[in-house]
Amino acid sequence: MTLPDLNLDALIDFLTRLLNTPSPTGFTENAIALCEAELADISGVRLSRTRKGALVGVLPGESDEGWRAMTAHVDTLGAMVKEIKSNGRLKMSKLGGFAWNSVEGEGVTVFTQEGETVRGSILLTKASVHVHGQDMSKTERKDEVMEIRLDARTTSAQETQDLGISVGDFVAFDPRVEVTNGFVRSRHLDDKACVACMLFTVKALVKAGLKPKKTAVLHVSNYEEVGHGAAAGIPPEVTELLAVDMAAVGEGQTSDEFHATLCVKDSGGPYHFGLNQRMRKLAEQHDIPYKVDIYPYYGSDGEALWRAGRDVAVSLIGPGVDASHNYERTHTEALLATVRWCLAYLLE
Ligand SMILES: [Zn+2]
Description:
Blueprint: H1 8-19, H2 29-40, E1 46-49, E2 55-59, E3 63-73, E4 78-84, E5 90-95, E6 107-111, E7 117-124, H3 129-132, E8 146-150, H4 157-162, E9 170-173, E10 178-180, E11 183-186, H5 189-207, E12 214-221, E13 238-244, E14 247-248, E15 260-266, E16 269-270, H6 273-285, E17 290-294, H7 301-307, E18 313-321, E19 328-331, H8 332-347
Parallel strand pairs: 3-12, 3-13, 13-18, 14-18, 15-17
Antiparallel strand pairs: 1-2, 2-12, 4-5, 4-9, 6-7, 6-9, 7-8, 10-11, 11-19, 15-16, 15-18
The chain binds zinc ion.
């Protein structure tokens, strides 16, 4: 059996729009709405939202026994305003796991309670070399020495409050999306690349006039980066979950930017042996470029579901992403491999 064709240009166009839609964990409504709009014109997909704000799509299959689910997350790293400092600048509290040096100098948007946005950038509190000398290269980057310099006239806490900013406001980092020679370079490819792959899997399937073998659930998760995204929202009929999330590329890893990876173990232990075997077989059958890997510092929404007590088989696949939770990069070949693998899984 040959797999349906993917419209790769449309996938990249959607992915770029999704990357440019800020969605730090806890503030994902706009990104979820974008996914909802993208799925709305696919005939046969029943859409709903969970109370927690995730998007769930159900696509009826040839059989209604033993539903299969796929999950990918739109929430990303980011920050919240922790404190308005006496000099008018902002202290932050991290959302998700990252190192401050990976966002130092990055442009940010602060979202006020009134729905306004204020631009700024992340800097060391002692940022100028001409004032503080070379010592800044030795400064350990931690919460206390990082701040947001707002692009607004403020030198006091009061002036910043007058801009509408308050403690708890969400902060999004600029993704800086660029597509060159098939490479997609951007922040937050984890896991928006996989959200795009998941949505375009279903689009390709429906466009080809096909049905999944078993009723399929698409779960667009919105709390993965803090560990409990898919703990809710997977319907009780589901017996298998394919978590679709980035593969960790780097020294000692088999994963790369041109393959999709089956992760057999991460920080939460091994995934489901039987489902893993099937995924390997499907990749071989369909000539999907794939790797098998172990991720040393990693958790997924598959584990979130297991920890929530659900009795389902779980596997984890996804495209190789270089410099994850930093300024990330992948390649269209890895995205294509991921979509083809998802298609093979749903049609098996
Ligand atoms: Zn992820």
